[in-house]
Fold:
Amino acid sequence: MLRGTQTKNNLLDGGTIAEQLYATPKDCEDIFDSIEKPSALIATPRPTFIRSGVLTTVRGSAYMEYGNTKVLAIVAPPHELMRASARRVNMGVLNCYVNFAAFATGELESAPERERHLGSMLTKALEPVVCRNELLNFQLDIRVLILDDDGCLLSTAINCCGVALVECGISTYDIIAASTACIYRDHVFVNPDAKVEELLWQHRGGNALVGATADTTSTPPVVREHGLLVTASMDTFEQIAQCQQCGYLKPATYARLLDCTLEINKSLRELIKNTIRARVKEQYALDLREQAESAQEDERLKTVIESLKQQGLDEFIQSNIKEDPYTKR
Amino acid sequence: MAYVALSEAEKTFILHGVEEDYRCDGRSRRDYRPMELETGLVSNASGSARLRLANTDILVGVKTEIDVPHQLTPEFGKLEFFVDCSANATPEFEGRGGSDLAQELILSLKNAYESPFAFDYRSLCLIPGQQCWKLYIDILILECGGNLYDAVSLAAKAALFNTKLPRVTATLLDAGITDLIISDNPYDCTRIGIETVPLLVTVCKIGDFCLVDPSAEEEACSTVSMVVAVSQRNNEAFLSGTHMTGGGSMHRDTMLNCLQLGLSIGDYLDKLLVKMLKQEQERVGPKRPKIVGFLK
Structure:
């Protein structure tokens, strides 16, 4: 009876792209069947690549790949607050802006709303880590560009921003690390990819109440927990900076997912630490080279001045004139 | 949140009070301030509620509209939240000043109501795949006296309880097109089940202690608070969305303690709210006598 109108994009060469991955609730089932379900809970991060200082145009920048999720974070040096009303708070103000690259996501309609949501969650997660008391009457703008979305967006953005903050030289209380875990149909997915997150998002798409079709209204439907948990932690004093949950969970499951994400955060933290350390070493090597170069330059200038003093100006100029092969005297 | 001017001495006073389990207004750490709740005040809305939690004043109106369900959720209705921070509350909300706060409230409400377990979207369905109810929950913040999350969610739940959807009958025309006939009798209506509708409980951490229902002054002293959305289903408490706000961090154990406190308070609050709503309904009866007005 119901047939979703499947709109198709025609490419120049005649190929088509299906705009919607899911047209009917049945498709959700098919997708769920096709994805790999984890057999055991393994609390390890995905293959990760972090590099700080990728851009020369801004003070602090970092690029991170978390599996296939690719994120770029930019931190500009703090600048004075514009709004007078915000000055009354005796803390600096943090603003995070998240943007999807136009090619990062298929659904362009929901992107602005997701951007806003991610921005506000990111601000909340980073507020505890930045020493805001040092930025009195200043605001710190953090911009995140999402290049590719394969799940764990918020946690990747938090990790990436943490590195970018250090690169920018903003004082922080600790290193922040974040990770995601979710539960869907009794399977715990650690670092859920885009497919799983999409399913979870569409979960309210009728599949939540399994077996609760119209005729079984008399018996209460079985509650099948589903939900997503993003935890950002600062491990020196075992502090949790942000813990966002959505879905429908029992408190016990919540604690289980929390411990799982904290475990991942520990290994991510080591990785971030190593990245920052490597970056400092690299910067030190660069500084040394620069020093050596400038010393060399000084040396050269010194000899020039020396000869200038000895020979006098005219002689010096004469000695430095190279003979021109084309004009004969 | 709205700005409150507090000196260091006042903050210390509040902090000591919390440590002694005897807050400025005489409450213990687990007590709420007195609440006033009225439903059915706005005659233009399908359902409405006004909640006054000490100095916090919230007015919620629920409007209904017929819409086409999303194709992925053919049997689900729709909900939409809107929060308006009135400039009456504080001068800061003038112009676009309150939009950040409003956005935050909308996001957390949306998050809490997201799951089909938390809100029965099926009850809003008219004809699967073709017609469904869309509820617009408009929340107006008239006065800001702290603890907005709790007050807003309580008022929203009360307004949903009060909402009356007109009875609709469908006639099948040719070619599978259906026509809806809305009942002429204004008292012939259906209600929305609110048993599982979540409540938000803000657990605020001041010093080393956690407390509920912070006043605006206490909010200014707190380092971090946790918003817990509690939904009751089959006499069991479920979490339907939690997050931390306030710009601080806390230890894992503290967080789980906050969660426990939030869950137990949410459970208690929910029972009390439902009891009170039923009492009011019995007392008022189906026909509301005459609305005098909610502004004292």
